[in-house]
UniProtKB/TrEMBL annotation:
The protein's name: Protein-export protein SecB
Protein's organism: Pseudohongiella acticola
UniProt keyword annotations, A-Z: Chaperone, Cytoplasm, Protein transport, Translocation, Transport
GO cellular component: cytoplasm
Gene that encodes it: secB
Function per UniProt: One of the proteins required for the normal export of preproteins out of the cell cytoplasm. It is a molecular chaperone that binds to a subset of precursor proteins, maintaining them in a translocation-competent state. It also specifically binds to its receptor SecA.
Places the protein is found: Cytoplasm
UniProt-recorded Gene Ontology molecular function terms: unfolded protein binding
Keyword DNA-binding: no
A biological process from GO: protein tetramerization
Amino acid sequence: MAENENNQNGNAAAAQGDQQQGPMFALQRIYLKDTSFESPKSPDVFKGQWAPKITFNLNTSNEKLDEGVYNVVLRLTIEAKQEDAIAFLVEVQQAGIFTLDRFNEGDLERALATVCPNILFPYARETIDALVVRGSFPPVMLAPVNFDAVYAQSKAQKEQQGQAAPQA
């Protein structure tokens, strides 16, 4: 019986060791890397009725800082045009330092492209809204972004381009 208890305790310790060896994700820091607000046609832009055409661009990048530690940067650009003139242009680079340790290559790529930007996006959205309102424009309410869909679309495009490339 004592032998059986030792085996059970040994199995429990092994299971705990396996859990400690699994992937680890942690947020170390979120910070504003860069921001810019321009309103080149002020104050003339405030004279007419406000009916802008708004364009929205986003991209992400990441770099390895240390073993299992990554810096992820989410770049958002919002441009509002009133007729043919730029009413305002906002650029925000929201960044974070994340620990992603013991991930396999595919899961690491996915986490850096989806999980990390999902964490950063609300901070960038708030910064953009605050800058636009301080510029005396109506708030810009950015809808949430499905980074999983953006990642899947990007992967599909890369695969399609890879298949379309001529074989040497």
